[in-house]
Automatic annotation (TrEMBL):
Span list, region Disordered: 146-180
UniProt domain DNA primase/polymerase bifunctional N-terminal: residue ranges: 16-131
Any one Pfam family match given in the protein's UniProt record, by short name: Prim-Pol
Origin: domain of life: Bacteria
Phylogenetic lineage: Bacteria, Bacillati, Actinomycetota, Actinomycetes, Kitasatosporales
Annotated protein name in UniProt: DNA primase/polymerase bifunctional N-terminal domain-containing protein
Source organism: Streptomyces antimycoticus
Amino acid sequence: MTRTPQDALHTAAYVTPAGADWLASASASPRGVQALWAGAPTAAVTLPCGTAFDVISMDALFGRRVVGRLWTDGPGTGPVAARGGRVMLFATPGTAQRLPALLGWEEWGETAPPLLCYGRGDAVTVPPLFPPDPDQPEAAPLEYGARETGARRPAPASPPPCRRRAGWSRRMSASPGCPVPRYCCGPA
């Protein structure tokens, strides 16, 4: 069987056991998330932000430049996922709250493309531990403990970038028909 470059990219996207433990630690019940993944390792799972990680989502082109810059001029980057023309950078909890002020202070607020910041009270759908078989139909994301974790209904389609509204929560998820997010690591 011959492999295409796309096949190599597809099989390179996976989560290490330590990475899976870290992602699961965001849940109120990490063992429950691990049990879901044990039963369905190719399913995406919705997890809350703000405890183990925040997520900064940006346009794919800008995100690729950011990841490349972090690798060449900075400390590198942590986990990165790509989905539907967006790049999701997993960041330290609290980043979603601090980033808008930092961009304003650096006078980048008007020049940077719109960023979506997911922090405490928000939830994101994280990619599966292993990429699904491209020949199999895509599974809907699993939600573990939505009541315990505070996962909420999706917000309106066009939330303002990195801004908070009282009582308003955002959630990034892979809906049926949309590509499931995938992890990538290393320079873009």
